[in-house]
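Section: Multi-chain targets

For targets with more than one molecule, the full set of components is provided together so that the structure can be written out for the assembly as a whole rather than chain by chain. Components appear in the order listed by the source. The example entry contains two components.
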Amino acid sequence: MLTSCGGDGSDNKVEPQIDSTLTDNQESEMWGFDSMGGNSYQVPSPNELFGIIKESKLPYKDGLISTESVNYTSSKTQALNFGRLTADIAYTASFEKFQESIANFDNLRKVGDDLGISYVFDEFMVNRVKSNMDNADSLEVISTSSYQNIIAQLEEAEKGSTLAIIASGGFVESIYLLTNMIGEYDTKNVLVQRLADQKIVMENVLDYLNLFRDEERVLEVLTEMQGVSDVFLNLDEESISESLTTTGTKTVLGGNQIIMTKDEFNDLKAATTAYRNSFSNPQ
Amino acid sequence: MKSMNKLISVLLFVGCLISGNIIAQECSNFHKKKCYGSDDPFMRYNTQSKSGMFVLGHTSDLVFVAHAGQDYRVSLCQDKDVEEPIKFKVMDGRSKEVLFDNESAALDIPAPEEGEEADGGLPMYFEFSCEVTKKIIVRITAPGPPPEEGGKGKKSDEPDPESLFCVGVLLENMPTPKLGF
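Its structure, encoded as tokens over all components, is:
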């Protein structure tokens, strides 16, 4: 219905465009996966990304996140920071950092209150988080299930545009953390490829936001995030395997691999850090 | 009398809207309650899973991101009171190549032998491994004739609430198992 920014992989588009090959649902429809438009663009949770990153055994990096409580006045910055905090909790939980996780869970509740979505934190969830935060095995599980509950409740309450901004904040923070964890560009670092792969997620984030671009705050996020999206959408791709192969009962999907150069890595790191700092520490 | 009729019409319209919204809300976690996931204990729930409210004949897309080095399972479920099964295709989000079509896949299932009861259903899940990170479209088509243009499926012409039903898409993933030693 809306945008498919990556095209066929051979051309790189900076501006999201209407994708006429998706089902032609109009905004007046209420059936399908999204009450606004019928189609739905999903963004992987920060927990999913950090769960995969954890396999690379990269060490935790101090000083990347803050646990300071900040007052955010606009609904846009509240939603962006709600997303930022979900990514921060996913990051600290994946490294079993108890104090940071608890502090940011409290900050998340506060921003949730300001955003008018305090109902997503039911008593059961809060008690479960508080009583299990010192259990290394369950910290990551609780972080993931809390995120699931929050998203499910916001979907139920049809907070579509707020969810799109929350997903954007979580995505930007995940990229900020990942680029800073990598530190210096190295072609041998498997996380550079993981980072480049986030181009696909960036496309879905833009598609998701575009569903609600009639809202001023959503349009502002789209504009503000352009520094980050420009770098991602201009990354080259190369075909490395068949799009579909079947061996016995196993289906393997291949296709294009996304390539990131040193300059692109540095540009992305700078753009993401600048945007992240602009909404997490508003002057 | 006219004003009474008008009031009844307004109440009926509001009633339809409310019932639609209630069904929409009831559908929001449908996949968690009704979809059957993988038996593999390593498979984990993926937060890109989603449910939606469908009207007969309606088609809608769920677009999700599948990461490289992961195995995925896409499982579908629908309200039990809808007799015909739903059709679904899994497509490459960029090339739009159809990777799986449950109608075509059903043809590969051997026909029941004499004396055996015919299933009559379509496969309701698809499993795959991802070598590269990909955008995947799950296109769902609810059974029945397509809604008429400008007709069913629009808020301006509410269908019978009984023709509305929930469809869930449960996504699960796990790291692709490494083969050999």
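The radius of gyration of chain B is 20 Å.
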